[in-house]
Amino acid sequence: MVSLNGCHVGHCIPSILQPRHSHDTAEDPSSLYPEAQHVDTSRAQSKFLPHPDVMLDPFPAGKLKIPNTIKQASKQRVETPRPTNPKTGPAFLSTAVRPLSNYLGLTTLPLHIHEIFFAYALYEGLFRLVSPLASRRLVPSKYNAFTRRDRLNWDAHMVSMYQALFINTVALWVIFSDPQRAVQNGDWRERLWGYNGAAGMVQGFAAGYFLWDVFVSLGHLDVMGVSSAVHAVCALGVTCIGFRPFANYYGLNFILYELSTPFLNTHWFLDKFNKTGSKAQLYNGIALLATFAGSRLVWGSYQSYLIYGDVWKAWHTTEPYATPLCAEFFGKTAAGLGLDTPVGCRTLPAWLAVTYVGANTALSVLNFFWFYKMIRAVRKRFPKGDGDGGAKGVKRGKGRDTMDAVPEKMD
Description:
Blueprint: H1 70-75, H2 91-104, H3 109-138, H4 140-144, H5 148-177, H6 180-185, H7 188-193, H8 197-219, H9 221-224, H10 226-241, H11 248-254, H12 261-272, H13 279-316, H14 324-337, H15 350-381
């Protein structure tokens, strides 16, 4: 029976992994973290545990040696972690955000704040400078004839297109190349509470985009609309929950919703280029429906089913949540970085379970509703499927008025 005596909810520190054999002992981890001696994580040990360096941010100032395979990593000696101060970005940013992150319980936010600000600055630059300058140079007659509303939407879709291509590429790279995914695949505690720097990096870039989206939506509320602002705020909030850390594993999987976004943006651009009802838009529409159904309805529903099951297990279990990945990482870095205690050894708060599951369920329902409306719109526009100008009565070049069922943003 696991005992949590002396471990106060919200203030306990995850235990350091205990060595499996006596000859592996380096020193008593309780001397580094006295509160950790009451948390037993022996049941969370894994012979496939990666080297601690793998759990750091893949974009730090220093170079990291990352094992090529889980088998290679498992052969390395896992010593008792010691507090260190890894370089994860400008120190002043981590120091400045630390009080806020500790207050909100966003433990890993200081490790990725530089990626959030970098992404925000990048997207703001694309929106304010790159898109207007490039559009005036490449399609001057079209862009200069736009109204203020159309220009803002054009520039916002440019940013959305880049974001979707970039975040999908990085997310797929992490999913297929990060050795920690093998550890998390086999343990529900790792999937909910485990942390690794690569997934945190992707999460940081996504949070930077949604932060930009919040400011743009609020700054141009008359153009973007209230629904866009609400969507941006909610998306930023749900993304930031991952910095507790919570559901980093699933957060990376749900980012693949964005696989359909490039085709949605292409549909919008084709309307602006007077290609409404054309063969190009027909083929793009088929690709949009296929990727939307695959990434959001099939893949997304499957991931929702998995996370519902993991949350159910966490809600009913009495075990501590000090997982190997989370425990070793914070045992090695918490003191050096001044980070607050991660949520990894706390009970699952009701608000967290309800918020995450509720938001995920609402988005899943919306995805099915959007898909139904998109099917109806495509059938109306291409009744014969010939792509020779669309349905009778459909005029070219009318923008999104000809396909109102497709939402402006599904990020």
